[in-house]
Design a protein that fits this description.
- With 405 residues, this protein is α/β, with parallel strands linked by helices.
- The chain has 2 domains: 207 residues, Aldehyde Dehydrogenase, Chain A, domain 1; 166 residues, 3-Layer(aba) Sandwich (Aldehyde Dehydrogenase, Chain A, domain 2).
- Helix content is 42%, strand content 18%.
- The chain has 14 helices and 14 strands.
- The protein is globular, with a radius of gyration of 22 Å.
C-alpha cells in the first residue's frame, strides 16, 4: 500500500503542475457547476448515494434521500463563489494566496456533506488532494470523484481516493507525509495524527463535536418546534456533529415538551425509519435505556418514552446534569430555571459544542457557549456551505499567504 501512496503522489504532482497554470476563476467555475449538479432535483449523484450508502452505512434510503436534499439545498455554485470572494478577496491587495502543492485529507464519519466540502476546499486553492475515505463511508468520496471527472477531467486528476486500513501504520505515515493534512475524527484520532505529522506540515483538524437544543417561552407549547427538533434528531440517525443529543427547556417542568418530542419522534419513524445499528451501539442504547428505567423505578424524577425496539428514546431527566449520549435517536430532555442556569448546564460541553438549536431563547444567551452555529430547530442539519466549522474559515486554514511590501 505504501507504494500506492507514492504512485498516487507522483500522479498528483504532475496534475497539480498543470492545474497551477490555470486561472483560479476557471477552477471555481467548475466546482460551482459541480455543486449545482449535486443539488439539482433528480441529481444522479444524489441518487447514487441513495442507492449505495445504505448498504455501507446502515442508513435507511429514505433518510439518505431526505438528508441530502435538505443539506445540499443551499450549497449552490453562487454560494461557493461568494465564499471565495469573502475569504480570499478580503486579503490586502499586496497579498497572494495559494494552496499547498499536496493536501492529504483524512475523512471520518458516515455523512456525505463533510466529505464533499473537505474535498472541494483544497481544490479551490489548486492543491492536489489525496483522500482516505472513512471506514464507515467508503462511498461518498468515490462518488464525488466520479462527478468531478465528468465536469472537469483536468481538475479531477488532482484528486485521488485511496482506501487503506487504519492500522496500516506504514501506509498511514506515507499518507501523512504531505505539505498540508486535514484530519477529521475523534479527539484520540486527532491527537494521534498530530503526533505523526512531520515538522512544517500544515495541520487542520476537526475533532469530536456534539450539539444540543434550548427551548423556552411559547415555543415549549408549539408542536411544530417539537417536530422540527425530531427531524434534526432523525436525520442521519443522530450520528452527525450537528445532531441534537439533549434538549434544555427553560421552564420549571420539561415533561410536556418531552412528551411532545417523543410523539414527534414516533411519528417521524414512519417516514424516515432509523437504519441499522451495530451490535456495540445497540448494547449502549439498551444500557442507557435500562439505566434510566432503573432510576425511575427507584423513585427518581425521571420519565422514559420510546418504542420497544429502541428505534427512538426520550428520557426526561430530573436535573440538567450531562449524561452520556448513545445516539441513534436517543435524546435527553432537561429543565433549567433560567438562561443563566442554561449556560451553566452546557458549560462543560463548550469545548465540544458544534451547534445549538434555539426556539424561544435569545441567541445572546448562548453567544459565549462555545458553539460555532446557532440556528432554529429544523435547520440544525442544514448549515450553509460557508459555515465556520469549529469557528474557523473554510479556505484560509488551507492556504499559504504571501504579503509583499
Amino acid at each position: 500500500m505504501t507504494a500506492r501512496v507514492s504512485e498516487a503522489r507522483e500522479r498528483l504532482a504532475d496534475a497539480q503542475a498543470r492545474m497551477a497554470r490555470r486561472p483560479r476563476e476557471d477552477t471555481v467555475a467548475s466546482l460551482a457547476r459541480l455543486l449545482d449538479d449535486w443539488r439539482a432535483p433528480g441529481s444522479r449523484w444524489q441518487k447514487r448515494l441513495v442507492e449505495e450508502l445504505p448498504g455501507a452505512t446502515g442508513f435507511a434510503a429514505e433518510t439518505v434521500r431526505e438528508g441530502l436534499a435538505r443539506a445540499l439545498e443551499g450549497w449552490t455554485g453562487d454560494a461557493l463563489r461568494s465564499l471565495v470572494v469573502r475569504e480570499l478577496g478580503a486579503l490586502p491587495p499586496a497579498s497572494s494566496v495559494e494552496g499547498f502543492p499536496h493536501t492529504s485529507v483524512l475523512l471520518a464519519g458516515s455523512i456525505p456533506m463533510p466529505t464533499i466540502v473537505s474535498l472541494v476546499a483544497p481544490l479551490v486553492l489548486h492543491s492536489a488532494v489525496l483522500a482516505k475515505p472513512a471506514a464507515r463511508d467508503p462511498i461518498s468520496a468515490r462518488v464525488f470523484a466520479d462527478s468531478l471527472a465528468e465536469v472537469d477531467p483536468e481538475l479531477a486528476a488532482c484528486l485521488e481516493v485511496l482506501p487503506f486500513a487504519s492500522d496500516d501504520a506504514e501506509t498511514g505515515d506515507a499518507f501523512l507525509a504531505a505539505d498540508c493534512v486535514v484530519a477529521t475524527g475523534s479527539d484520540e484520532t486527532i491527537a494521534g495524527v498530530a503526533a505523526r505529522v512531520r515538522a512544517g506540515t500544515r495541520l487542520v483538524t476537526y475533532g469530536h463535536r456534539l450539539s444540543v437544543a434550548a427551548v423556552g417561552g411559547a415555543a415549549l407549547a408549539d408542536p411544530e418546534v417539537a417536530r422540527a427538533l425530531a427531524l434534526d434528531v432523525a436525520l442521519w440517525d443522530q450520528l452527525g456533529c450537528l445532531s441534537p443529543v439533549a434538549v434544555y427547556c427553560v421552564a420549571p417542568d420539561a415533561e410536556p415538551f418531552a412528551e411532545a418530542l417523543a410523539a414527534a419522534l414516533g411519528e417521524i419513524e414512519g417516514r424516515l425509519p432509523r437504519g441499522a445499528v451495530a451490535t456495540d451501539a445497540a448494547a449502549a442504547l439498551r444500557r442507557e435505556r435500562d439505566e434510566a428505567e432503573m432510576r425511575r423505578a427507584g423513585g427518581a424524577d425521571v420519565s422514559v418514552r420510546g418504542d420497544a425496539s429502541l428505534r427512538w428514546t426520550v428520557v426526561r431527566e430530573s436535573d440538567p446534569t450531562w449524561r452520556p449520549a448513545p445516539l441513534h435517536r436517543f435524546v435527553r430532555v432537561h429543565a433549567v430555571a433560567s438562561s443563566a442556569e442554561l449556560r451553566r448546564a452546557i458549560a462543560p460541553l463548550s469545548r465540544h459544542l458544534a451547534a445549538v438549536g434555539l426556539a424561544g431563547v435569545e441567541p445572546s444567551a448562548l453567544a459565549a457557549s462555545g458553539a460555532s452555529r446557532l440556528c432554529a430547530p429544523g435547520r440544525m442539519q442544514t448549515p450553509p456551505l460557508d459555515w465556520h466549522h469549529d469557528g474557523q474559515p473554510l479556505l484560509l486554514p488551507l492556504a499559504r499567504i504571501v504579503d509583499r511590501s
